[in-house]
Design brief:
With about 220 residues, the protein is α/β, with parallel strands linked by helices. Helix content is about 45%, strand content about 20%. The chain is built from 9 helices and 7 strands. It has a 7-stranded parallel β-sheet, with helices on both faces. Strand 2 (about 60-65), helix 3 (about 70-80) and strand 3 (about 85-90) form a beta-alpha-beta unit.
Length: about 220
């Protein structure tokens, strides 16, 4: 009986989250805001990538910084004079649509074209929680190991854009970046995979072009 109850409760949570996610996307669509859910493990380079996109992209944007304690990443984004809302998840290892709904009300959406939602740093917990974003961008680093994709298949199956970061150190850490690309393509043949190095700037232009293409579809 306990197992049945757990399954039913889990189902109810997922259903409620999906309903709220659809509500969030309607709010975003009303103000013509394109939202990107940015996922990745701690140290993958999510925060640094968003910082570079803030600097390089011309569209007005805002950021939701989600973390167990969000003030650190939120503070980094605030330096660029963009609207930022920090979401503290406490013991939770992911954002959910309910938390994002509250953040949307604190942002000047009418003045924003792009919203980056930085999810909590891991590749497991956020998988099942749609936030109402228009695309999911998954960021991984070669320093996590070239078996990272194989170990976390679900998040890549659902990705709209995959970034393999820090490729400039691939040889130093003994990672096969081409294997990582191939592993993603096995799980999600149609997804665009971009190799990047934020240190050298490699791949940044391609990421911007990919996001802008999604915005125009």
């Amino acid at each position: 009986m306990h197992k049945i109850a757990e399954v039913e409760i889990q189902h109810d949570i997922m259903l409620a989250n999906r309903k709220l996610a659809k509500k969030n996307q309607k709010i975003l669509d009303k103000d013509e805001v394109f939202a990107v859910d940015v996922l990745g493990a701690i140290g993958s380079g999510k925060t640094s990538l968003i910082e570079r996109l803030i600097q390089e992209m011309e569209q007005p944007m805002a950021v939701i910084a989600g973390d167990v304690i969000s003030k650190f990443d939120a503070g980094r984004f605030e330096k660029y004079d963009v609207p930022v809302v920090g979401l503290n998840t406490g013991k939770e290892c992911h954002l959910d649509a309910h938390l994002v709904e509250h953040a949307l009300h604190d942002l000047p959406l009418a003045d924003v074209d792009i919203l980056f939602i930085e999810n909590v740093g891991n590749l497991i917990c956020p998988v099942d929680f749609d936030l109402g974003s228009h695309i999911r961008m998954v960021v991984i680093s070669v320093s996590e190991g070239d078996d990272t994709v194989e170990k976390h298949p679900l998040i890549f199956k659902d990705a709209d854009l995959v970034v393999i970061n820090k490729v400039d150190i691939a040889e130093a850490v003994g990672a096969d970046q081409d294997k990582m690309v191939d592993d993603v393509k096995i799980l999600n043949p149609d997804v665009q995979v971009i190799k990047t190095s934020l240190k050298t700037g490699q791949g940044l232009k391609e990421i911007i072009e990919a996001i802008e293409k999604f915005m125009n579809e």
